[in-house]
Design goal:
It is a single chain. By secondary structure, this protein is of the alpha/beta class. The chain is built from 14 helices and 13 strands. The strands form three sheets. A seven-stranded mixed beta sheet has the order 2-8-7-6-5-3-4, sandwiched between helices. A four-stranded antiparallel beta sheet has the order 9-10-13-12, covered by helices on one side. The protein has a two-stranded parallel sheet with strand order 1-11. Strand 3, helix 4 and strand 4 form a beta-alpha-beta unit. 44% of the residues are buried. The chain binds pyridoxal-5'-phosphate. Pyridoxal-5'-phosphate binds next to helix 3.
Length: 342
């Protein structure tokens, strides 16, 4: 029996930079010490990368942690939080920590529809969560469009733009952040070392915002919320932009393979994404297909968009694993019963 194939969490199968791994090893003899409060060294490095000031950076135990901090800081029992329908489940978890009401805005063409989000705003809206690229659909809205839309959003509403996959989406992923920060004191951009930097197990992410927002959300952080291994590894990972570029190139190649191989399966509707996963629908009972893959120890995610269509979300992974997934899908679909159940 072959090993299980895990393509359900959008991890970076190439792993972390060797420099990050060395930094963790080098840190092992200092484990008895608490981490530096607030992670000043890492904040400095992030600030330099983004051409902003360290005071505009907050660190989290994964970017999830920052989403939680924002939700706690900015909502009360009367508040509404607008979230696109079919988006990152972590937004729901963050909203769930509060008594605020979630208001959903439908996607268009599996893409976040900014106009629909705006139509959902009310006098009670305190917070908007957007993921760009969106998870689980992988679609992307251009930065210029986001900026134009932000101009139309009341400044007392906090807008979270979650860029967990941005390194996969843009050739120059850092160019827009300082301008956005200067123009909008109600926006927080969140990012993570879990995806393209390959450090998901260490849990480290960051947020970039006006000093007003940073102060408000930092009050919600647990002391020493980012551990010392994570701080050391993330700082080293930032120094290895070649590894990051190699990870992005590898991901592009694997996505091309998936687009091509999945499209050759009869009836496939493949979604072109800007992240490290590909979505596909087949004219069959998708829940059964998902369950059949699981029986064969192939783990992907299943989601239904309001459009309505159900998709498998397949993370990129080692090429041989993706080949196994494609062959297994073809065999399951060719065998008949799943097709008939459509
Ligand atoms: C859109 C999005 N945001 C945030 C996260 C959370 O990342 P982290 O590991 O930094 O908590 C994920 C993880 O899958 C994600 O897909």
């Amino acid at each position: 029996m072959r090993d299980a194939i895990y393509l359900d969490k959008n991890e970076n199968h190439l792993g972390a930079s060797g420099k990050a791994v060395d930094a963790v090893r080098a840190h092992a003899d200092r484990l008895c010490r608490y981490p530096a409060p607030g992670g000043p060294e890492l904040k400095d490095k992030i600030a330099r990368l983004l051409d902003i000031r360290p005071e505009n950076v907050v660190l989290g135990n994964g970017s999830d942690d920052i989403l939680f901090m924002v939700a706690r800081a900015y909502t009360d029992a009367d508040a509404e939080i607008v979230i696109p329908e079919t988006s990152f489940i972590g937004f729901d978890f963050a909203a769930g920590l509060t008594d605020a009401r979630i208001i959903r805005a439908d996607l268009s063409n599996l893409t976040v529809d900014l106009e629909r989000v705006r139509e959902k705003l009310s006098s009670r809206t305190k917070l908007i969560f957007l993921a760009n690229p969106n998870n689980p659909t992988g679609t992307f809205v251009g930065v210029e469009r986001i900026v134009g839309w932000l101009e139309t959003i009341p400044r007392d509403i906090i807008v979270v733009i979650d860029e967990a996959y941005i390194e996969y989406a843009l050739e120059a992923p850092n160019a827009h952040v300082s301008g956005m920060l200067a123009a909008f004191d109600n926006v927080i951009v969140t990012r993570t070392f879990s995806k393209a930097y390959g450090l998901a197990g260490l849990r480290v992410g960051y947020g970039v915002a006006s000093s007003k927002i940073i102060a408000a959300i930092s009050r919600q952080a647990a002391p020493f919320n980012v551990n010392s291994m994570a701080l050391a590894a993330a700082a080293a990972a930032l120094e290895d932009q070649e590894h990051l570029a190699a990870a992005v190139r590898d991901n592009d190649g694997l996505k091309d393979f998936l687009y091509d191989a999945l499209s050759r399966i009869e009836g496939a509707r493949v979604v072109q994404t800007k992240s490290n996963f590909v979505c596909v629908n087949f004219p069959c009972d998708m829940s059964k297909l998902h369950a059949s893959l699981k029986e064969k120890l192939i783990y992907c995610s299943l989601f239904t968009s309001a459009e309505p269509l159900t998709y498998l979300r397949i993370s990129t992974g080692p090429r041989h694993e993706l080949e196994t997934v494609v062959e297994t899908l073809r065999a399951l679909l060719d065998s008949g019963p799943l097709r008939k159940a459509a």
